[in-house]
């Protein structure tokens, strides 16, 4: 079984729950509404850091916060490649009422349990990819595994 590598950045205190989707269900995101648990991961650790950066305003940045980069291994046969994106998927902020098509798209994919993972372009760098993971999918625990962990310190210069 061929594996695809992805990365998720999490605060150390959330390491154990990094794949349960609870955080995204509490706040919603570009591809999910509040109440819909999904896990966001990036194709590289650098993109994972950048995705986190665009969501943490300077006022909320905690320079001493400890983060861990979680390598995620995904069974490539369980990844759905999206060929047609909903209109307005890249609208910023993702919480804008105009970006609801992307959330509806993700919510429908999650509820239908069509695949364990969706491969989508990053809104930050559309030529790079993120993975939306569905922890409610029956094959999730078989198809998604944690790999190595890397301690990550977010450089304060990212917030200048």
Structure description:
This protein is an alpha+beta fold and 160 residues long. The protein has one domain (3-159). Helix content is 20%, strand content 28%. It contains four helices and seven strands, in the order βαβαββαββαβ. It has helices at residues 22-27, 45-53, 100-112, 140-143; strands at 3-11, 39-42, 67-75, 79-81, 117-121, 129-133, 144-152. The strands form two sheets. The protein has a four-stranded mixed sheet with strand order 2-6-5-4. Strands 1-3-7 form a three-stranded antiparallel sheet. β5 and β6 form a beta hairpin. The longest helix has 13 residues, at 100-112. The relative contact order is 0.26. The model has no long low-confidence stretch (mean pLDDT 91).
Strand content: 25-35%
Number of strands: 7
Largest sheet: 4 strands, mixed
Q: What is the count of distinct domains? A: 1
**Within the largest sheet, what's the order of strands?**
2-6-5-4
Sequence stretches where pLDDT stays below 50 over 5 or more residues: none
Q: What is the N-to-C order of secondary-structure elements (H for helix, E for strand)? A: EHEHEEHEEHE
Structural class computed from helices and strand pairing? alpha+beta
Total helix count? Answer: 4
**Helicity range of the residues?**
10-25%
Cα(first) to Cα(last) distance is 43 Å
What is the alpha-carbon Rg in Å?
Answer: 15 Å
Shape: globular
Mean pLDDT: 91
